[in-house]
From TrEMBL:
GO terms for molecular function: DNA binding. Residues 93-296 form the Tyr recombinase domain. This is Integrase family protein. The lineage of its organism: Bacteria, Pseudomonadati, Pseudomonadota, Betaproteobacteria, Burkholderiales. GO terms for biological process: DNA integration; DNA recombination. The keyword Nucleus does not apply. Belongs to the 'phage' integrase family. Pfam families: Phage_integrase. Keywords: DNA integration, DNA recombination, DNA-binding, Plasmid.
Length: 309
C-alpha cells in the first residue's frame, strides 16, 4: 500500500468524524511529499526521524510532529494498514516552554503608531491589533471572522469553529466598536466575494489574510516600534502575545480594583475560549507586575486580619 493512500484514508476517517484538524493535514501532506512515492513498508525510521526533527534545535514542533505521526500510525496498525511504527521510541528532552511576552500599555501604543510602516495595510493591521487586545481572541479566530460575525448594533462578535470546535459570543466595548465601525467603512469599499459571509479583515482583493503574512508584517511593525526581549531569548515578542497581554492586564485591573479574582477567572476562561480554568490560571504567575499586585492584596488582607485578631 502506498504511503499517500494510507494517509488519505486516515484523513478521510478523521473528517468523517467531524474533525477538521487542518494543521495535522498540512503536516501529513508534507510528510508524504518528503517521503516520496513509497509504500508504507519502504518508509525508514531514520527518514521519519529526520522529518520530525527538522532543522535546528529541538522545539515544541518536534513533539507536535511526533504526536501527529503517532496518531497516524496507531490508526494504520489498528486497521492492518501497517505492521509497525517507524517513529523513534524516545522523545528528547525539550527546552522549557516559551514565556509569553507581556506588552506594556506604552508598548501597545508604540505598536499602533508603528503600523504606519505598512502604508497599504496600516488600517487593517491597526484594527487587528486592537481587536486582539480588546477581545483576547486567537489570531486564527480573528482572521476567520466574517462581516456577519461582527454585529456592531448589539456590540457582539461571534467566534465560530474555534480551537476546541466551539462557538462563542464575545461582547465588545464602545471604543472597540467605533474602531471596527471605521474599518467596516473601509472594508465595504473592497470586493465582497461572498457578500456578508466575506472575511471581515481582508486583503485589498477581499480575501482572507494569511497567518504567515500577518506574522511577517507584524515583525516589521514590532521592529519599527523598537520592542524586543532584552534577555537574549531566541524568540522575540509575537503577535500572539497580545492575547496573553490582554488576559494579564485584565487580571491586574481586577487586583487593583479589589475584585475577587478567583471568582472571575472562570468568566475570563469562557471569554477567552479556554477549555478549562486551568489554562487561565497560568496568567496569574506570568509577570512580576501581576505578582506585585497579588502581594499587595495579600499584605492588605494580612494587616486587616492582624488588626482584628
Amino acid at each position: 500500500m502506498k504511503l499517500r493512500d494510507m494517509v488519505n484514508a486516515y484523513i478521510d476517517c478523521q473528517r468523517s468524524r467531524g474533525l477538521s484538524f487542518c494543521s495535522d493535514v498540512k503536516v501529513l501532506r508534507f510528510y508524504c511529499r518528503t517521503m516520496g512515492d513509497v509504500t508504507v513498508e519502504e518508509v525508514r525510521p531514520e527518514s521519519v526521524l529526520a522529518f520530525i526533527a527538522g532543522c535546528g534545535p529541538v522545539t515544541a514542533r518536534w513533539v507536535q510532529n511526533y504526536r501527529i505521526l503517532g496518531r497516524l500510525y496507531r490508526y494504520a496498525i489498528g486497521r492492518g494498514l501497517a505492521s509497525v511504527s517507524p517513529l523513534p521510541a524516545q522523545i528528547p528532552r525539550l527546552p522549557p516552554p516559551l514565556t509569553p511576552y507581556i506588552y506594556s500599555v506604552a508598548e501597545l501604543e508604540r505598536l499602533l503608531t508603528a503600523t504606519a510602516v505598512l502604508p497599504k495595510q496600516a488600517l487593517t493591521m491597526r484594527t487587528l491589533l486592537l481587536l486582539l487586545y480588546g477581545t483576547g481572541m486567537r489570531i486564527g479566530e480573528a482572521l476567520s471572522l466574517t462581516i456577519q460575525d461582527v454585529d456592531l448594533l448589539t456590540r457582539v462578535i461571534i467566534i465560530r469553529d474555534t480551537k476546541f470546535y466551539k462557538t462563542r459570543m464575545v461582547p465588545i466595548g464602545p471604543r472597540l466598536t467605533m474602531v471596527l465601525a471605521d474599518y467596516l467603512g473601509h472594508r465595504s469599499q473592497l470586493p465582497l466575494p461572498a457578500g456578508d459571509s466575506s472575511v471581515f479583515l481582508s486583503t485589498r482583493t477581499g480575501h482572507r489574510l494569511t497567518y504567515a503574512w500577518i506574522n511577517g508584517q507584524f515583525r516589521r511593525v514590532r521592529q519599527a516600534a523598537d520592542i524586543r526581549r532584552e534577555d537574549g531569548a531566541r524568540y522575540q515578542p509575537r503577535i500572539h502575545d497580545i492575547r496573553h497581554t490582554a488576559a494579564v492586564h485584565r487580571i491586574i485591573a481586577w487586583y487593583r480594583a479589589g475584585d475577587d479574582v478567583q471568582r472571575l477567572l472562570p468568566q475570563l476562561a469562557t471569554y477567552f475560549g479556554h477549555v478549562g480554568v486551568a489554562s487561565t490560571q497560568q496568567y496569574i504567575s506570568i509577570t512580576t507586575e501581576l505578582m506585585h499586585e497579588a502581594s499587595l492584596r495579600f499584605e492588605r488582607y494580612a494587616q486587616l486580619e492582624i488588626r482584628h485578631a
